[in-house]
Fold each of these.
Amino acid sequence: MAILNVKLPDKQKKTLESISEDLQYPSKSEYVREALREKIEKDLRLSEKVQDRIDEARNSGERIDLEEAKEKVSG
């Protein structure tokens, strides 16, 4: 397993320690790994939706830029 060091603001570190303890995670690292997995999955789904929107526009002849595609799928 690779090691990644991350700097956090003091308040965020304290929150991480508190939540990971309250939820009985084996370690702060496990809490962060789970949060990161969930964030990556969410971003991948969003990325797929953006690509679908771009493909839809391309197939219909509609012009759309990346930011517009992101806005349409996220909000």
Amino acid sequence: MKSSAIWLLPVKLLFFLFLNSFNVFIALAGASYLQPNFSRGYLAGKEALFDSYWFPAGLAIHAASAPIALLLISFLVIFRVERTPKIHRLLGKTTLIVLLGLVVPSGWVLSYFAFGGVWGKLIFFLLAGYTAFAALQGYFAIRKHQVTAHKHWMHELLALMVSAILLRLLLILFHQFDFAGYTAYNTAAIFSWVPSILILKLVRKTTQPE
């Protein structure tokens, strides 16, 4: 048992570093918005949106808070932090505050300006909403000492936060096949999180029947 745990730690560490290497890239991209380039990338053609308050404020908050949330959630889920309850509770509460106070509200703001037309806006609005729902469900579960349910919701939260990485990878893949425009973007947006959540729910249903 101890031998398997020893070998499992490097695997967990590699997975954590793998996820957060992408996370660093996203954080650096967010930092670049401080000096916006409207000729390419996410901000291409969005110069007029900076005339209002909501888009730049939402973008700045989301760019700063989402990488922090992913770092915290990946650390909590991948490593057995619950073995040190005080640290686990502190990091868990910090994550909840960052998600509900910063990531989700800014996500709702950005969803209004999302690429992809009405469907694009709806997909990202639902993503932010379900993130809030999963975070609250995880919190309420642990308050009721439902540890298994709490872990499930934390796994869903990790999948939701990783969707930012999957979205970018899918868009790169689609670009290789000349698949672009609203349909490509909305397809990538859906596949960046919906299948992951459905798979996690199916695993939960089959391994932990009600």
Amino acid sequence: MIRAIVLVLLTTISVTGQDSTLVREYCNKLGQLSETTDIESHISGIDEMTRRYLERNPMTGDNRLQEGIRLQYRLMRELKRNCPNYTTDRVRLIPKAVLDLENKFSKKQIDSLSILTEQIKRDKSVYLYIVSIDNFYPDSTITDFANRYRDFWAPQANPEKGVVLVVFSTTQRKIRISTGDISMTFLTDAECSEVNKVIIPHFKNNNYFDGMVDGLLAIKSRL
């Protein structure tokens, strides 16, 4: 029951950010929640805490949706790192063609990449999506991070050829094309390595959008 309520509260506070004060306040709320059945009053308190935080820290970027997703993920990651009362193993995010957690794309670029992945989904019957990330916590490698979230951040109902995740971190200088039990039968590890060789030269020149476009097209040609 508490686990389900925690997810509700995370949704309530999903766009508030990850500053240390908010993490401490939220952690305290979770601790209080485990000791009482008066759930409504705590939800009301978190609503008020969220409202005050947003008044102090309004979102001003050109892509409020991605900004909100980034803040949601970072808040929950910091709770995982610092709050004993937070026991959720993975951060739940709404499935999106691009989860730009490292803030590497403009809104226009994200829209273009989303259109391209939708075309690939339609033409090749695969769910293909992109994640940028600054670090892999609580995992130590990009492989473990990709395995943790590849299917978890995809829709529950997937196309015939399964799920392919392209995840990269410019901070960690890592990239991985991650396939699952189904998609690996259509896109081999050797082919993923070939696609990486298409993407990496663009990334070395900080051309993340061009690298992703060419990478997605290279994946499409191999499916």
Amino acid sequence: MAPAKSQRMIFFYSFLFFLVVSLAGFVSPGMPDERKGVHAKLVADYIHSVIEAGRTFYSKQVVERLGKAISLRATENWVEDNTLPLPAQFLIASSKISNSTGVGMNYSLMSLWPLNKKNGPKTDFEKSGLRAVVDDPGKPFTWVVQRKGLWYFQAIYPDLAVTQSCVSCHNSHPQSRKRDYKIGDVMGGIVINIALGRFNPAQKEDGFLVPPENVADFVHAVIGSDRRVYSRDVVDRLGQKNIVRATENWMDNDTLPLPAQFLTNASKLTDKYNLGLGFRLISLWPINKKNRVRNKFEQMGLESVSIHPIRPYISQVKVGKVLYFKAVYPDLAVEPTCVNCHNKHPKSAKKDFELRDVMGGVVVSFPLKGW
């Protein structure tokens, strides 16, 4: 009897050990933890900083600079006029692409004095929020709203007149109800909606947490949409009509920045917000040495998205004492400009790119505070 009992005990403890090891492997450090996340207010700050950076760079370094240098105007009927889209139109076009991705976040322009009635407030909360950022542009107006059983975190950030072209357009437009704007004035708001899912009372205390992989998707959606609009509606369109080209030395040549340079310069503008958010282009075949991979994570990320371009490569990486969430998304050749530039560039290590090829990656990173 003793040997049989001993065998049963050995079997039991072996099974228990196997179960514990299996569960330990299942709940691995790299997997999302439902108890942790990024505060929704900080997520909205991240999204706003990227939106604002892209719009500021486009307004100042494309619209305003080329308006002065080569008299290239930005007009409301930009397609028919063979001109640049207005900064507001650029943002709206980008938001439509981003909002169509279905990542669980959307954004839009809104104003108490809209040129287009579609951009007016639709709820009392939106009216209150727009008034709040006009009165105090130093902080966003935030609230939580329920729709069809699901909860959403919403934030309105002031939409400032950053260039003279914004001021002149609104002050002279026949449909404008306000004609005394000055540079720096609040012209409206950028409204950001973040899906939170079903309501959990405990979330009131932790600030409504959003999984970090979702946060990275939100940021990447804005980056990708801005770049797509810039490549398609500005660089490719105006280049094909021989109105203005995009060149590497755009400042000296009075030309358009390349799409990759648009992303790089927008990334630099997000630094002023001191949020810890960063994004940059990387490649296995970089034209610019600054875009080479810097570590094993980036190398593995590029190899992964080259094979599986639908899914980003994600990880948590400790830099010093700070834990960061990092994601590598595929950088696809979505417009002919990208393909032609890389295939013809004298410093390019790969000259056979085709449309939809993975040319490199976009790295998104932000700190995981309190983890």
